[in-house]
Amino acid sequence: MSTDDIDCGDENPQLCGNDIAALITQTQRRVWKALKRLHDYDSSFEAGREYLLNHSSSKVRLIIMYVDLVGSTNMSMTLPVDKLVTIIRAFSNEVTTVIQSHGGYVLKYVGDAVIAFFPSSSNRIADHEFS
Questions:
Q1: Residue 66: partners with Cβ closer than 8 Å, 6 or more residues away
Q2: What is the tens place of the pLDDT at every residue in 69-120?
Q3: Is 82 helix (H, G, I), strand (E, B) or coil?
Q4: 3-class DSSP state for residue 122?
């Protein structure tokens, strides 16, 4: 996919393309850094646990997200284990960064998948959907 494939609507399409290109470049840099660090990334669940504990006596609207690495089964049959682990960790690191940047919390890592939740107050879509 290139930035030309994205519909930016009628609003300044050049600006939209530049923003998307910058976002892609930033993401690529983060993934390369994660790959170089190998197994060193923050996988703390403390913030999510604290949020859930603080709201355990109340009804809270959450959006649950499950995301996994497409093609990981095929990769597990063709790549050496150390390379597969590095790819899964880089993927998990990147997904965690995106989740946290949108006000979400990682609940758990399951193999090549990440399970997360977003409080409705941090997500305009949820506020709109439930009002």
A1: 113, 114, 115
A2: 999 999 999 999 988 888 888 888 888 888 998 899 999 999 899 999 999 8
A3: helix
A4: helix
Give the 3-state secondary structure of 7-58.
CCCCCCHHHHHHHHHHHHHHHHHHHHHHHHHCCCCCCCCHHHHHHHHHCCCC
- The model carries a pTM of 0.65
Q: Report CA 87 to chain centroid distance, whole Å.
A: 14
25 token code pair: 């470049």
63 three-class SS: strand
Q: In which element (H, E) is residue 95 found?
A: helix 81-101
Sheet of 62-68, strand order: 62-68, 113-119, 105-110
Structure tokens at 96: 């965690």
**Domains along the chain with CATH numbers:** 38-130 (3.30.70.1230)
Q: Which tokens hold the place of 5?
A: 């494939």
- pLDDT tens digit sequence for 6-49: 455 555 455 555 677 777 787 777 777 766 665 555 667 888 99
